[in-house]
User: Which sequence fits this backbone?
């Protein structure tokens, strides 16, 4: 089976659109985390998000540990599921580098900051 030029271009466009959706999800996740005030680190945790083709998360993000963080965690799960499906659909390869897990969260100038020690 051979693909015509138009079919190949259409596939490339479809793949790029899916990449843009995932990029928008990551921006939304990061903005949500950044826009929440951090007064005490005891009220914050961190969670993995995304997935690399070789396994493991794409990154970590800080989030407040309280009932209203449910929507935030749902967004993390949705993004991870979207990325997992994308990897499978497009047979994506990644750099296979492990992302370091943070050791804690600190409040720095009112913003939750992941700490790596």
Assistant:
């Amino acid at each position: 089976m051979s693909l015509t030029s138009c079919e190949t271009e259409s596939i490339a466009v479809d793949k790029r659109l899916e990449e843009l959706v995932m990029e928008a999800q990551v921006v939304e996740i990061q903005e949500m985390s950044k826009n929440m005030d951090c007064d005490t680190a005891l009220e914050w945790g961190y969670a993995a998000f995304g997935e690399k083709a070789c396994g493991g998360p794409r990154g970590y993000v800080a989030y407040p540990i309280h009932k209203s963080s449910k929507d935030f965690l749902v967004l993390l799960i949705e993004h991870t599921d979207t990325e997992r499906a994308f990897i499978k659909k497009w047979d994506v390869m990644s750099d296979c580098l492990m992302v370091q897990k943070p050791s804690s969260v600190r409040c720095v100038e009112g913003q939750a900051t992941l700490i790596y020690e």
Q: What stands out?
A: The chain has one domain: 5-115. The longest helix spans residues 5-34. The chain has a mean pLDDT of 92. The longest strand covers residues 44-49.
